[in-house]
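Per your request, structure below.
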């Protein structure tokens, strides 16, 4: 007898991992009891969670902002899956780009309590120079003068679809390549109500960030 999913989440996992077959599910369960296998497989979910949060960001946050009339011309991957940005929208006549990154999982995060960190690299399919300089982001988008925003998803640590936003031009620079953005960011606040967070370059609201920081 095939196992039945209780909701769409289980249905998705059942189909993706072939868990509707009781024997397969039991074998998978036994496999995960091995700590080495468990610890090997769990980080592999990072790529899936990245795509999940990217879709959730578009539907949970940006669709709502567009419905409220705060932003317009919302597009997901306007130049294709393999090119920046992940999202673009227009706010008060200016187009903004948004790049999504998920924060590090608790199991290997190096951030202090109350903060998350993120590894801020470009995707590996991009053409790299021999010194890997092209792996790191520019302070501005690929189009000259285009404002670009980093959106850090907190799901891996807070278990919630929520994000922290910052303009790329406000991020610290890379120690080896000062014309590039740093690849390891570790002072991203979870609680944005503290005075330190209020005074920081980060916001939990993308429209609030634009109004707060403006264009330089």
């Amino acid at each position: 007898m095939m196992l039945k999913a209780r909701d769409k989440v289980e249905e998705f996992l059942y189909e993706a991992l072939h868990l509707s077959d009781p024997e397969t599910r039991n074998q998978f369960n036994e496999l995960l009891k091995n700590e080495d296998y468990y610890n090997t497989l769990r980080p592999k979910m990072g790529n899936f969670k990245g795509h999940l949060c990217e879709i959730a960001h578009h539907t949970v946050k940006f669709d709502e902002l567009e419905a409220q009339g705060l932003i317009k011309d919302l597009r997901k991957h306007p130049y294709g899956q393999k090119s920046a940005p992940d999202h673009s929208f227009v706010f008060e006549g200016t187009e903004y780009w948004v790049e999504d990154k998920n924060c590090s999982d608790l199991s290997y995060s190096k951030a202090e309590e109350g903060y998350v960190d993120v590894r801020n690299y470009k995707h590996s399919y991009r053409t790299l120079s021999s010194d890997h300089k092209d792996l790191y982001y520019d302070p501005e988008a690929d189009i000259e003068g285009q404002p670009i925003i980093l959106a850090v998803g907190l799901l891996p640590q807070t278990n919630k679809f929520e994000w922290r936003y910052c303009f790329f031009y406000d991020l610290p620079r890379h120690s080896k390549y000062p014309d590039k953005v740093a690849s390891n960011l570790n002072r991203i606040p979870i609680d944005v109500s503290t005075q330190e967070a209020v005074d920081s370059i980060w916001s939990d609201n993308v429209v609030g960030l634009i109004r707060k920081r403006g264009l330089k």
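The CA atoms of residues 55 and 62 lie 10 Å apart.

Regards,
D.
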